[in-house]
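By convention, each integer encodes one residue's backbone shape. The lines below illustrate.
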Amino acid sequence: MMVLCHKEAILREWYSVKGETVKMFDLAEWKDEKEFIPLTNLSLYDRRTDMEGVVLRAVTVKDLSTSTQFAGNYVATMYGKVLEELTHSLNFTLKMISQMDEHGVWNSQTRTWSGVMGEIVSGRADFAIADMSMTSLRVRYVDFTLPLIISRTSLYIKEPKICGVKWLGYFQTFNSRTWVTIITLIAIAPFLLSFMKMYRESRNIMDLISENLLCIWGIFCQQALIEFPKSSSLRIAYFTIFLTAVLISAHYSAALVSFLTSCIRVLPFQTIDEFIDDGTYKLIVPRGSSDYDIVSFQAKQQSSKWFFSVKLMKLMKDESELPRNLIDGFTQVCNERKVAYMVLSSLKKSVEMKIPCKISSISTERIDNLGMILSKGNPYTNVINYHLQKFFVNGIMTRLRDTKFLAQSNEGKTYKPVRIINIAPILAFLCGGIIISIAVLLLEKILYRSRTKKLRVSYPSKKDILFIKKYNY
């Protein structure tokens, strides 16, 4: 409350932190019975920075450590750093009373919460140190801090072992504009050379164009000229074309090798809609998480508005088979066939070094906000949020987010050999060229033999000529 005592000119703020003692703060002074003169420019929670060592009962999830010495979990270490800053700035302490297996889901039959949410809603705890997703249902029962992490939800599957064959890789090294420029250059150059030779050689223009076209095509295929021209203008023209062809070939070769030898995994689906249409993968989410709560709640509505959630629920494993922690979920993905794990990207990052296999991700376009929670109507929610906001403004939160908490691997980078499937397009072009060459050769042989037979029929043989000369026919 604000108090102005009798016969005093000072307006004071009276408040109590723990309800045991009353603290007073001078706000303004009454001057000349006309107006109040402010005695401070501090805001409400700048004046109340001391929580006098209040002890808040805290609850957490078992797989989220709040120790700042635990350097293997990005989310856990970040939460631990934030709590260190808060407890130091506001002078309060946390007393851990329990660790729960899950974050908590809503039971519509008993109308109760499980996990961390159950501890807070029931009044057994005041503060939850957990990466809690902000949902409209949870906001009705608890107070949220400002979001500490904003992350996108992704679908994770085991990385396919087979790489995609890039049959169009030869053409994808250059973009369409570059290809058009090269083709235009090859098409125009013969006409320009023919125009330059017309004044020096008295030949048919079509013969000159066809000859120069073969020469230009040979130059771009790294072949030499049969005869280098004597004219200086033609020499300069050919040298420029040779130099252009060499530069294009060098760039093309480097880009082609890099493009064809890089392994691009072929995923069975690219979007969450394709995942549902595929229908061969089982879906898992962390047990007791907001993802399961939202999907199951919307699926129970059985309305066209939530038809997407109904489809997801049909693909989801039974609740008893869902992973209890992040590592269990990724272990299922690695050990079982056709299992997809839907979880936040930031949580995946927090255990990245412990995932037992390589995984691929598909974005679901869903963004989630992660924060900590307090009991509904908690008197310390606003002051904690105010100081969290100050952390965002003064850069402390950015520093905590950017700090590399993930353990670095000491293993050197290894290079894998190129598999035969990666050069399948090259082998296909080579085999195709050999087959076409053999077919053309056989066709030329057949045509040559048929033409030779006709010539033998048309002209007399050597014996006939000798016979004619002998008898003077």
